Here is the input.
Amino acid sequence: MNRVLQGCDPDADCTPARPPENPLLEGKNRALRGKGDHIVTLDGPLAQASTFSEDFQLEYTEGMPPQSVGWGKVDEAQVIKFISLHSVYFDLMHRTPSLARMEASNTLNAITRTLQQGVEGKAIAGAVGAPGNKFVLLVGHDTNIGPISALLGLHWNLDGRADDIAPGTELGFELWQTPRGAYRVKVTVTVQTLRQMREAQELTSVNPPVRQVVIPPACGSETSVCSWDEFRRVADAATGAR
Here is the structure.
């Protein structure tokens, strides 16, 4: 990234015309008291790298011409490499257990109670929607998906990007019932590929977004699903619910 910010072409020797007066990627990372709705603020090169890498990703996925993506120095392969810096930053800011619990306990509890409502077939305090609803949609941000995933211990790698929460990422909780009446919970992460976003491709059954089943490690299950009792135990322990 330092080479890109200095105007160097990829994989080529480069000596900047003049060294930067204030190198963006040097210095110390510092955790500071947050302001507004931010619990903690991280200051330093990692925060700067995170911002630039996300900017490059947005420039690429919004379909900007190649000469405008990272000043013409960033291609798709580099976007994938750079976005890992944003994921490291995001891991510190939104996956640190104490921060994740403050940010996401209420939302994860609402998701758990909504699933419980489907299992028990009756209204449950704190649930979203009515007991008979087949589909419930909660619209949020990466700062919702990240902390919820942290509380459940979820990780993924899609389109070559580990734990990236790109625009339009979906964290899904599916409630299944076996022929014998037992309930299971399947958790999935779905994202568009960078190319799908850049080209504004229509998503169809033939050209779907990429999807991965993610399993909370604490479920202790070797299958792709958790039993309802396992999932509720894990989620309630993560949120402190009783």
Summary: The beta strands are 30-33, 40-43, 157-158, 161-162, 170-177, 183-191, 210-214, 226-227. The mean pLDDT is 89.
